[in-house]
Amino acid sequence: MALTACAGTPAPQPASSTQATNPIITNIFTADPAPIVHDGRLYLYVGHDEAHGDQMFNITEWRVYSTDDMAHWTDHGAIMKPTDFKWAIRDAWASEPIERDGKFWLYTAVEHDETDVGKSIGVAVSDSPTGPFTDALGHALVANSDTDGPHVWDDIDPTVFEDDDGTFWLYWGNANLYYAPLAPDMISFAAPIQKVDLTNFEEGPWLFKRGDLYYMAYAGIDEAENENEQLYYSTAPTVTGPWTYSGKIMGPGENSFTIHPGIVEFQGDWYLFYHNAALSIGEEDGAIGRRSVRAEHLYFNEDGTIQPVTPTAEGLTIPRRE
Ligand code: FUB
């Protein structure tokens, strides 16, 4: 709409805003978003799901996208596939990278070969956030036999975080939430693995800090309310707790049993990445294993609590509306 001015009054300036899209990536199915910021760009790591028909998941590779305005994205392509870990056989499940001294360490879940059946955490390394990444260890950092979970897929969904004292921490898990400090080599632990209980916790932990408060966002299930996963969070005064349940961030993802958070501050604003299964590509509808990554603005209250987020069909409007 054109704006016109009355004689003698200054012309009103149109508010300039950019409209992003939801989902962010529409030509392939993507899941388990992990956003990080490096050198003024936001890098988004996802799993590329090629499930067909009734297949549950067929997540074949990890890919990276980046942006400097949250609306226009560069596709950096595939950075690694599960069998680049010689001991893994499939399943590019959720991952999260972190930079340390110019190297990028990618912690990720994959299916281990027959020598330790079940999901395992691998660690890969690259000189660039856009890869390529190679196995940094030659075996799993955490294999199924290293933990005492209720099933063989409890060692998934790693989230990695650097604390103010320079210690890097890894949390991960499904059903059980495990954690341990990483050693300076980033490929071993500096202390034994421990466990913590969080209200409704199911999987997909995402650890971050804002001000003095540590936040653990995660996918959880409250069966009295909904059989599908919803996004919850707990907060703590230290990286190891004690954790206090702090509420729900978002309800279930449309058409999706799973939901998976990735939270980041970029250019002064906070963003929540998640996935649902509302996208169709050609004949293939979204489904349990064919999800697509999306983003919304995230708002905090004065006391540090997170305001519930309503998914939008249209995606981010930038700058955000107050
Ligand atoms: O994408 C595979 C699995 O589904 C992830 O590891 C979970 O967080 C859930 O999103």
UniProtKB/TrEMBL annotation:
Keywords: Carbohydrate metabolism, Glycosidase, Hydrolase, Polysaccharide degradation, Xylan degradation. SUPFAM superfamilies: Arabinanase/levansucrase/invertase. CDD domains: GH43_Xsa43E-like (cd18618). Signal peptide: none annotated. InterPro entries: Glyco_hydro_43, Glyco_hydro_beta-prop_sf, Glycosyl_Hydrlase_43_Enz. The active site is at 32 (proton acceptor), 203 (proton donor). The record marks 157 as: Important for catalytic activity, responsible for pKa modulation of the active site Glu and correct orientation of both the proton donor and substrate. Pfam families: Glyco_hydro_43. GO terms for molecular function: hydrolase activity, hydrolyzing O-glycosyl compounds. GO terms for biological process: xylan catabolic process. Belongs to the glycosyl hydrolase 43 family. This is Glycoside hydrolase. It comes from Hyphomonas beringensis. The lineage of its organism: Bacteria, Pseudomonadati, Pseudomonadota, Alphaproteobacteria, Hyphomonadales.
